[in-house]
Amino acid sequence: MKKTTTLIVGCGDIGITLARQLKAQGTSVTGVRRRPEALTEAGIAAVAADVQDAESLAALPDAEVVVYVISADRFEEEAYRAAYPDGLKAVLAEYAGRKRPPKRVFFVSSTSVYAQQAGETVDEHSEVAPHGFSGQLMLEAEQALLAHDLPGTVVRFSGIYGPGRDRLIRQVREGRIAPASPAMYSNRIHRDDCTGVLAHLIDLALADQPLAPLYLASDCEPAPLHEVMQWLADKLRVEPSQVIQSPLRRRASKRCDNALLLESGYRFRYPSFREGYAQVLEAGGFLPTRKG
Fold this sequence. Notes:
- InterPro entries: NAD(P)-bd_dom, NAD(P)-bd_dom_sf, NAD(P)-dependent_oxidoreduct.
- This is SDR family oxidoreductase.
- The protein has helices at about 15-25, 35-40, 55, 75-95, 135-145, 165-175, 190-205, 225-235, 260-265, 275-285; strands at about 5-10, 30-35, 45-50, 60-70, 105-110, 120, 150-155, 160, 175, 185, 190, 215, 225, 240-245, 255.
- By secondary structure, it is α/β, with parallel strands linked by helices.
- Strands 3-2-1-4-5-7-12 form a seven-stranded parallel beta sheet, sandwiched between helices.
- Strand 4, helix 4 and strand 5 (about 105-110) form a beta-alpha-beta unit.
- The longest helix has 20 residues, at about 75-95.
- The chain is globular, with a radius of gyration of 20 Å.
- The N and C termini lie far apart (about 65 Å).
């Protein structure tokens, strides 16, 4: 069976970007998805498999590192259970039985596992007690990995933004803004830092460096959502005209502490929303043209 260094299960936007970064660093990488045509077109070695089909998982190549970064098909409990705890457990069962099991399995999780809503600072040791099914099933998947015999690390991403992930920008363009009071703290990470974090941790794993079981991956400046949206409004030259109470799917307010990730040696390409959204505004053609 062909040996590959890194296998990315659920190779969508983040997976493809990660694969390109790893390839540029000289790492062998294979992407896995049910319909792999997009990977082939992107020049990435691809395997067709479905995490709900054990027979297709048996055909996956050996790997030193497995990255599980699947997205649920839809925001429904059944879809989340299939994608996260059930799918991850199936992949773990497959690779646990290999003669050459992976050095490390990474599971991409979410800060939805936190229930804090009063502006508290959270880190890897904070209580997790998710209210909704999405956070509960993410947490179940995390626990399955961390209890498994295979070495595993969970990476909890906060709100991901970047190319094609511009909902907040579009809301501001429509004149909408979050209330200034009470302050509702928000946390985010640029898509390119998502892949940067994963590539960094993969490098550590391949170099047999110690890894924590869990990393909170969010940029260096939690910020009130009103402040972020007002900054965007200034850049877009829009005067907000409508205050919206719940611009996020679930109202929450917490501050994510990324100190452990920084201690591991990672340096953010976009350490705050200002650098990151400046890139998205420029690349996406959102900025108004200057007259004269």
